[in-house]
Specification:
Blueprint: H1 3-21, H2 28-38, H3 47-63, H4 65-77, H5 84-117, H6 121-137, H7 152-164, H8 172-182, H9 187-215, H10 223-250, H11 254-270
Helix pairs in contact: 1-2, 1-10, 2-6, 3-9, 3-10, 4-5, 5-7, 5-9, 6-8, 6-11, 7-8, 8-9
């Protein structure tokens, strides 16, 4: 097998790997670092990570397109027609905006510092265990709060959970779902709020990085492998999120906790 083919397969594998781990609560960023470490893969800069993350964003937009269209329609409709349904969706949009602020501010101010300080495999092992503890804590919770029952406090706390997930090994979906369910949200509402909260922060990262990606020395040389990674991540993210939605309905989060404990301990003990 030629070196060029191996290189293409490397990027395709990493795209699929990131896409599969992005929606489920085991930390895609942490697993991407683990994959690069164990397979001795060197990806310069954050260009590839941003590209595959954008593919995951497209998958989320596709799956939640009906919710997004309804929120936009009713949210804008509330400005002219103040019905109860319109107000519920208007408030939901407001809470998504508020929930985005903590991670947005911390990411802009301290994103590079966090990446440099915690860019360590042992740290990923420790934070995977922390993710597992959070998932274990909510494993049997059955909340009652629906979309229309959320509050400003809920939005801020879940937003802070998303901000904590800026650290490698802390799952973004895991942190936000743990926070949401600990606040008493139903599984469906917690899942929807978590992934709709992913959209603005991911859009912000992508928009902020467009110029850097276009000016990158690697983009012109690696556009074919990057494209393969994007496609792999898009498909894997879509089916992984669909699978995770079914798991949430059945309340089987404990298995993700077991996984995080096992992998986290293995990294701390043997890497």
């Amino acid at each position: 097998m030629s070196a060029e083919v191996v290189e293409l397969l490397k990027y395709l594998f990493l795209g699929i790997f990131q896409g599969f781990t992005e929606p489920i609560p085991i930390s895609s960023s942490g697993h991407l670092k683990l994959a690069q470490h164990f397979f001795d893969l060197d990806l310069e800069g954050l260009t590839f990570e941003i590209i595959v993350n954008t593919a995951s964003l497209f998958a989320v937009l596709l799956i939640y397109r009906e919710d997004i269209l309804r929120l936009v329609r009713n949210g804008l409709g509330y400005l002219s027609k103040k019905t109860e349904e319109n107000k519920k969706d208007f408030d939901f949009i407001l809470y998504l905006i508020i929930g985005t602020i903590p991670a947005g501010v911390i990411g802009v101010l301290f994103g590079d510092l966090i990446e440099e300080t915690f860019n360590n495999i042992k740290f990923v092992g420790a934070t995977l265990i922390i993710t597992g503890i959070g998932l274990w804590y909510i494993r049997n919770m059955k909340g009652k709060k629906r979309d229309g029952d959320l509050s400003m406090k809920d939005a801020i706390i879940v937003g802070l959970g998303q901000a904590v997930a800026l650290m490698p090994g802390i799952s973004r979906s895991g942190a936000t779902i743990v926070a949401a369910m600990a606040l008493g949200m139903k599984q469906e509402t917690a899942l929807r709020f978590s992934f709709l909260l992913f959209i603005p922060i991911s859009l912000g990262v992508t928009a902020k990085s467009v110029s850097d990606i276009l000016e990158s020395n690697t983009i012109s040389e690696l556009w074919i492998p990057y494209t393969l990674g994007f496609i792999g991540s898009l498909i894997a993210s879509y089916y992984s999120l669909k699978w995770f939605m079914n798991i949430m309905q059945r309340g089987n989060l404990k298995y993700f906790a077991y996984y995080c404990f096992i992998v986290g301990l293995a990294v701390l003990l043997f890497v």
